[in-house]
Amino acid sequence: MSRSRRVLLIALFGALSVTGLFVRLAVPGLFRRVPVAVASASEPPSGRVRLAVLGDSNSQSYHDTVMLSDPHARGGQWRATTWQWTEVLAQLRGDQIDQGKWGVWGTGKYRAIASEALGALARTPPKEDYRYNFAVSGATCSQLMGQSQRQAIRLVDLMDMEPKAWRGGVVLIQIGDNDLSSHELFDELSRDPDAVRPASAINACIKSIGEAVALIQKYHPDTYVVLVTGGSDADWPGEFNSWQSAREIANIDAGIDRFNNGLRALASANRHVHVLDAGLWFRSLWGNRDDHGRPNYKIVHLGPGWAITNTTGDDPHNTYLSDTHAGVVWNTLWAQYLVTSLNAAFGLHIKPITDAEVVDFLRPSFRAADTPSATRQEAVN
User: Fold this and answer.
1) Which of 52, 115, 121, 228 has its CA 20 to 30 A from that of 378?
2) Measured between alpha carbons, how far is residue 133 from residues 87, 100, 151, 190 in Å?
3) Is 209 in contact with 141 (CB distance < 8 Å)?
4) Which domain holds residue 120?
5) Dihedral of CA 121/96/39/266: which sign?
6) How does pLDDT run across 215-230, given as a tens digit for each residue?
């Protein structure tokens, strides 16, 4: 064979290889087969229920020291006793819920792309978390199926390694804050619930979430999917001076309903998909604005005289941390609600988290904060 022909064949092979890699990345599941254990509908394994998470900073563990290396993040001086809801579940129900091993998972995005293109497991960015938790701070809905994170695609790749173990498991998807929760977007909704820009962002999120659900259900049809609804920025203390009229709040609620109803539509035809209404849960505890659109929130009282107000601050008396993320009380009560909801929706048998357990779990957090040096930031009125 002549030298020129060898060069031509090498170039052609290289081009075909690169094309194959791009096709593998562009078309999820093109080279994936339905796992045999799922296809044969074998009996699910006994033991703990597997739980995976797709989403943003609402679901990323607070005690990650890789991405969240700032010692003042997620609770400031009380970070050691400020827990995110997956961390609460691991401590209270780790014997029944399997979120994967705690450790540092993921690589830089280019290495992840190369690994995935070559057929290896991949994820990005690197963070310290439970293995099945793919939620990343700053993630948008497009990251469920698109670059650089491809959360749903890479989770399914991981699930394919042990398909039988995921029968009866749960994938929780909570995402959309970074697409939908900006002051400017809510301001547009307050004037017109059908405003073009918010509607476009909402539709794009629903599309991405729908594609993620379809991918999971295609290859793991016996895995349950939980979709968490969006909440209202009007309930965040930093916006208490905004939208103080009944009409504005009604318009915002109508816009949020557009997103949440999209999630309900995804679940309506599939008994393996369930919607959790986070806004309804929040308002059942702390309430909402009054009939005139003004803040009118309740105080949640727990156990030994603890009062938790809809305010911002790093100690556990506040619903929100200083960096706007949910506080430890919110996350603990949400973990309690989640267990109850999973049991009701899917017939699971996870031991409910009792009110006494909630108080015992939170005791170190309040003990650390209830000192003469502890301070709080009151609601912005």
Assistant:
1) 228
2) 11, 8, 10, 34
3) yes
4) 47-87+99-301
5) negative
6) 999 999 999 999 999 9
